[in-house]
Amino acid sequence: MSSSRMSPALFEKMARDAFNKSQNTKARKSVVSIGKVRHEFDLYQEGVVAGGVSTSPWVNRTAKRTNNSGGQDRVAAELLWLHLCNSVKRKVLILKEKDMADGINHRFGGSGFFSPAVEVWLFNPATDTITHQSDL
Fold first, then answer.
1. What is the pLDDT of residues 16-72, one digit of tens each?
2. Distance between start and end Cα atoms, the chain
3. How far is CA 15 from CA 18, 93, 107, 123, in A?
4. Which of 25, 78, 101, 119 has the fewest beta carbons under 10 Å from its own?
């Protein structure tokens, strides 16, 4: 199956598995209580790591190449959940699209807002490789 036709759920599983293998973690999809609310993290290992996975591009793949505000908003919301999660040492965001990684880094990188920093990773399902891109 080509990576462009891969379902988001399969991409998420493959990305989580690649991250676990590369970082020697045992994160899985998990619902976590944060204060009085609950959030489902795409990868979570108590005390170790919490993270989200996104397949969204920064801009829409149309002729006009307009901003993908829906995808950008979902990633920003995930960053907020990661910021609120105090039960782990590491916080990660795994992305499929490099333009989303670049856009998020441009918007939030260097702000010092996230402590610990949110690690941004890129996963390529065609080669089953995951690479660290930046820290927010």
1. 999 999 999 999 999 999 989 999 999 999 999 999 999 987 876 766 777 777 777
2. 32
3. 5, 10, 24, 6
4. 25
List the 49-54 sheet strands across, edge first.
Answer: 28-34, 37-45, 49-54, 90-95, 118-124, 129-135
Closest CA to 37 of 77, 85, 89: 85
CA angle 94, 48, 108 (to 5 degrees): 40
The closest alpha carbon to 88, from 9, 15, 27, 8, belongs to 27
Token duo for residue 93:
């965001």
Q: What is the pairing mode between strands 37-45 and 28-34?
A: antiparallel
Please report the domains of the chain, with CATH numbers, ordered by start residue: 8-135 (3.40.1350.10)
Q: Cα(54)–Cα(120) distance, rounded to whole angstroms? A: 11
Structure-block tokens of residue 128? 């089953």
pTM: 0.90
What residues are paired with 8 via a beta bridge? none
Which residues, in sequence order, are CB contacts of 136 under 8 Å at separation 6+?
A: 79, 93, 104, 105, 108, 109, 111, 113, 114, 117, 118, 120
